[in-house]
TrEMBL record:
Residues 79-98 are annotated as: Disordered. This is Fe2OG dioxygenase domain-containing protein. Residues 128-235 form the Fe2OG dioxygenase domain. InterPro entries: AlkB-like, AlkB-like_sf, ALKBH3, Oxoglu/Fe-dep_dioxygenase_dom. Gene3D superfamilies: Alpha-ketoglutarate-dependent dioxygenase AlkB-like (2.60.120.590). It comes from Durusdinium trenchii.
């Protein structure tokens, strides 16, 4: 059933697949694995995850949640992530004033990654997607949130599959189409997965909005705390092709109005107000994308650095 919530529509799982390039799957992990992973991450996130921060005009802004990056390509015992691997898996991290924590994935987290991989394979047998990293987010209560955004494409490439697993408290996950700002929202109780595919990063934004604590579905173990893991596949071919802005700082690859563009300084004050490319994203095969990126997305800089 469609329900109007302000300007936001709460939709059923079936409707979501018709309205947005996204898919909700319930109880994807065996329930014991979901419980054990939740307990492990509740503990680990308290000890090791942290709020990142960035500085805009001298003022430090903290993320209203704690986060950590898990590099699934690292074998147990490999210890600290190397700088190269951190740069690839932690896009924008070098721009952060307080960078994101990098943690080693446990066996439980790897098992969860295998379940997520199998679920994607079941829905898209032809897909070669396989998760290489997971970004953890911890939302302690209704004030913790993530605002409207699409994920950086630098290390993921065009039209990436990104899979979010929710553990603990039930929060709302919202998707907004950039062309007309229509919003759909889905409740994400414990052990629910949302798959964002196709052009979800190119044409839509997503968020976990602030909520009154009284509207959050508490979990028997986690209470108001929600933990999410977003599984992604990094493309090593792209890491070598990262472009610096003309001011020398890293740039991020984003998409707007049907074109890719590189923007300066994702987290701080951009040196340039506008940088555009002339690369349309639609229907572009990955090989073409790499080729064009290697040749350089020629940037038109709106104002001088
Ligand atoms: O917590 C969520 O479900 C969303 C997190 C998110 O958007 C992200 O990690 O980029
Ligand atoms: Fe995101």
């Amino acid at each position: 059933m469609l329900r109007q919530t302000g300007c936001e529509r709460a939709v059923s799982d079936e409707e979501l697949t018709k309205l947005a390039p996204a898919h909700v799957l319930r109880r994807v992990l065996p329930s014991q694995l979901a419980t054990d992973l939740l307990k492990e991450l509740l503990h680990e996130s308290k000890e090791m995850w942290r709020s990142s921060s960035w500085v805009v005009r001298g003022k430090e802004h903290m993320t209203p949640r704690t986060t950590a990056m898990y590099d699934l390509s690292l074998e147990a015992g490999q210890g600290e992530a190397t700088k190269a691997s951190t740069q690839q898996t932690n896009p924008g991290a070098e721009e952060l004033h307080r960078p994101r924590a990098s943690c080693m994935p446990s066996e439980l987290l790897r098992q969860a990654a295998r379940c997520i991989h199998a679920a994607v394979k079941q829905h898209r047998p032809e897909s070669t997607w396989s998760p290489t990293l997971a970004l953890g987010n911890r939302y302690d209560d209704g004030r913790a949130c993530v605002g409207w955004h699409s994920d950086f494409l630098n290390s993921l490439g065009p039209r990436p599959i990104i899979v979010g697993l929710s553990l603990g408290a039930c929060r709302r996950f919202s998707l907004r189409r950039t062309s007309d700002h229509s919003v759909v929202a889905i409740p994400m109780p414990h052990n629910t997965v949302v798959i964002m595919w196709d052009d979800c990063q190119e044409e839509w934004e997503h968020s976990v909005p602030r909520q009154a604590d009284s509207s959050i579905g508490k979990h028997p173990v986690a209470g108001l705390v929600r933990i999410s893991l977003t599984f992604r596949m990094a493309r090593p071919e792209l890491a070598e092709k990262q472009k610096l802005c003309s001011c020398g700082r890293p740039s991020v690859l984003k998409s707007k109005g049907g074109r890719y563009y590189l923007a300066c300084s994702p987290m701080g004050t951009p040196c340039c107000t506008y940088q555009a490319t002339t690369m349309p994203w639609q229907f572009m095969p990955f090989g073409d994308f790499i080729f064009r990126l290697a040749r350089g997305l020629r940037m038109r800089v709106g104002s001088p650095c």
